[in-house]
Amino acid sequence: MLLRAIRLQALPLKTHNFRALQSISLLSSLPNSDPLNDTVHHISTLLKKPNWQNNIRLKSFVSHMNPHLVSKIIAFHSHDIPLSLNFSKWVCKQSTYCYDIDSRINLLYLLVSDNLYGIVHKVLVFLIKECFSSKTDILKLIDAIDDMEKIGFRINYPCYSMLLMCLMKLDMGLMTFMVFKRMVEGGFVVDGIDYRTIVNALCKNGFVQAAEMFVSRVLKLGFELDVYVCTSLVLGNCRAGDLSEAFRVFELMSKEDGCGVNSVTFSILIHGLCEVGRLDEACKSKENMSVKGFQPSVRTYTILIKAMCDNGLVNKACSLFDEMIGKGCKPNVHTYTVMIDMLCKEVSINEANGMFRKMLKDGLYPSIVTYNALINGYCKEGRVVSAFELLGLMERRHCKPNIRTYNELFDGLCKIGKPHKAVTLLRKVINNGISPTEVTFNILIDGFCRVGEVAMAIEILRSMNSIGIKPDKFSYTGLIDGLCKMGKPEKASVFLGVMVKEGVSLDEVTLTTLIHGYCKIGKTKDGLVLFVEMIKNGCMTSPHIFNIFLDIISKEVKLVEENAILGKMIKYGLVPSVVTYTILVDGLCKRGDINSSLEMLESMRQVGCRPNVYAYTTIINCLCKFGKVEEAGNLFIEMQKDAVLPNEIIYGLLVKSYVAAGRLNLAFEILNTMSQNGCKPSSQIYLALLSGILKSEMEGSSRIFSPRFVFKDIDISHAIKLREKFVECGGHLVDIYNFLILGLSRVGRISESEYLIQEMVKNGLYPDSDVCASIIDHFYKSHDYDLCLEWIRRFLGYGCIFSFASYCPVIVGLQSEGRFSEADRLISDLLKDADVENQNAITPYIDFLVKGEEPCEILSFIEKIGHRERPVI
Predict the structure, then answer these.
(1) Is-contact 412 387, C-beta < 8 A?
(2) How many separate helices (H) and strands (E) can be counted in the chain?
(3) Which of 48, 161, 151 is nearest to 108 (CA)?
């Protein structure tokens, strides 16, 4: 008994109650009835016709054919084994009831019970091949083989050989060896292929010593030590983390009397080097590979490209991708997927989409991993319509979405503040037979907490328990964080108690979140009680919690308590981090003790803790606050000498301080330095400079001026002057235009905004999505949908990109006024602008995104999740 000999993991296996399936179809409700025999004869007649696989009548029969009927038809054709085998393969692909592994196993049982062993052996080989991608399925199949042996069935050599191959592919090395032992006990003799398979299986799991012992044994039987076996040993040593031994084997292979190496050997070594971060050596090995006469394969390049992507080396990854194409090595699906994932994370979603289109142009079929990576990229940027377009493309290309796909979509909907839509989508997902995971519910909990609907998040948590999904620490931490942000740490602590009761481990993040929640509302003592609990549970791995207490105490200007906390940190063996010192610097600044804060900077240097930008920011902020602009400027110069680049906050502090001191020329010098250092100014910096321009022209005026209302006070000449000064300082024109237009539109000055937009377009520039949204929102709030439509079409004409949140309210508004044709036309225009190729396919998703959902309906569904297996929409 193969599976019982070694149970690597407990799997919930279904009872093989194949008789129960007979009730599914009327055809099999009476196994011995005439209708069943008539059906068998009728289908058998169709099978005798040429090209029977394309017979429409046969396809209609087989679509709902259960295992019992299939076994009867195979028995009828038992004399023709090729036909029986082809029919069984075909039926497994076509029949609703023979698609999953359990139903296929039921078919095996029925064939064995009819003593059709010859056919069973052929079907079994086919089924093992079908399990090459699923550990769960192959273990179920092995369990079934054990059961069938009890009633006299014995698997033959081809079945054993295919089983070894399958287990090796699935990285189940120990199980492979146990099957081999069972094979030998059954009197079978392994051949060279099986011998290599077993060595490779053991090595893939890092069992190098076991593999070497096995090799020693089989060498005595007359087998040779060839390149395949030695390459497996190189792999095993790499997997075990022993690269020196892997190189030793490689050198032995490379000798004149050695078995030689091949491109696979090189690729395995390169992968091993990449795994431990030795990327330069990996690249050199690739070059050495070419010197030795082996061209790097697609796998070699993909390994290196992935390693570069994982280490954030985007340019090197792109160079390798271009190199492989230049050398005629065509990227495969995995290569493209790695590149798409990297471009989504490190570059832009548009670049990733371009790579995806290139992949389709090359005739490759994206995998579900490819689609998920791109959908995740779109959702991260809030472009959920494009994400749903990809979902539609997946379905049209027969790539079935999995729960990971939908989790990305749930997360995208939550990121744009639409967790209710995510729940509505969940309802459809469950109805399609896809089961949610704890990750699904954690996304929803976090989404509802983010929009302040903690009560709904709590209902989501309760529904998890009702369907047998146990909430994990992320579920509770998300909820605790949401409650703490609402200023309710007492209620959050209730869930901490639930975690303890349910046996969910408390980690540093959960406890720190709750402690921070107590400290924020002034209940430091309650936070200290939890802190003691952290010490008892050994949850402290970083000085973060100490930093929280230091931050709170420094704000309360309590020097003695600060020193006590610092002492405890050192007592528990935690080294104060740069964050710790920065908090102390901040505390000294709050007391107005600038000299001591500067001394603290020097102390940091002495203990080897280099001050970071935040430490300098704290002191510069303090200097500016007390009007010591010259000293702040000097510290600004000093930090750059220490190779610490100023951040946007420091630039902003200096600009505001110079403007306040009436030294506008120095403020613009800071802007010039900022541009040279490649730091993009914030809207606050633009606002300070604009205020400075207005203030300089109002000198001597008795009018009270407030920067808060600057866009109500300026005229267009002030805006143009800022634009000109900004260009002189080397800034990007598009940024200043967007700032000015956005500010003016938000205070209702649309005519001035329109003038600047026209100026912008004349310069070949286009407003960003925030500007578009602001102007459309202005007209939407006054229910002037005609002007909304006019501006949307103007923006589309300019080539502006809209976010879903911009046009969704307008569509809903038009529909609420009964202007459905205009709403549909707007949707069509927007989809066309977004380069949606198949608008009919994406329209249902647009309807789903636009349609409003009542919170009570969503809550009702959540409550029903645990009470119905398949909730109805």
Answers:
(1) yes
(2) 49, 0
(3) 151
Distance CA 675, CA 693 (A): 19
Cβ–Cβ < 8 Å for 524, 550? no
State the number of CA atoms in the 13 A half-sphere of 307 facing the CB: 22
Other C-beta atoms closer than 10 Å to the C-beta of 780 total 19
- Structure token pair of residue 102: 């359990």
φ/ψ of 613, rounded to 5, equals: -60, -30
DSSP-based three-state secondary structure for 558: coil
CA–CA separation, 532 vs 207, rounded Å? 44
Q: Which of 547, 676, 540, 568 is nearest to 614 (CA)?
A: 547
Average pLDDT per 10 consecutive residues for the chain, totaling 873 residues: 38 36 35 59 72 71 66 68 72 60 75 80 86 86 87 88 91 89 85 88 89 85 84 90 90 84 91 91 90 90 93 90 92 94 88 91 92 93 85 85 93 90 87 86 93 89 82 88 88 85 80 81 76 65 60 52 51 61 75 80 77 86 88 88 86 90 88 84 88 77 60 86 86 87 89 90 86 88 88 82 72 85 81 64 66 54 45 29
Cβ-count burial 534-570 (b if 16+ within 10 Å, e if not):
beeeebbeebbbbbbbbbbbbeeeeeebbeebbeebe
CB 629 within 8 A of CB 659: no
CA distance 519 to 556: 11
Spatial separation of the C-alpha atoms in residues 354 and 106, rounded to whole Å: 46
Amino acid at position 153, single letter: F
Residue of 182, 596, 223, 649 whose CA lies nearest to 199: 223
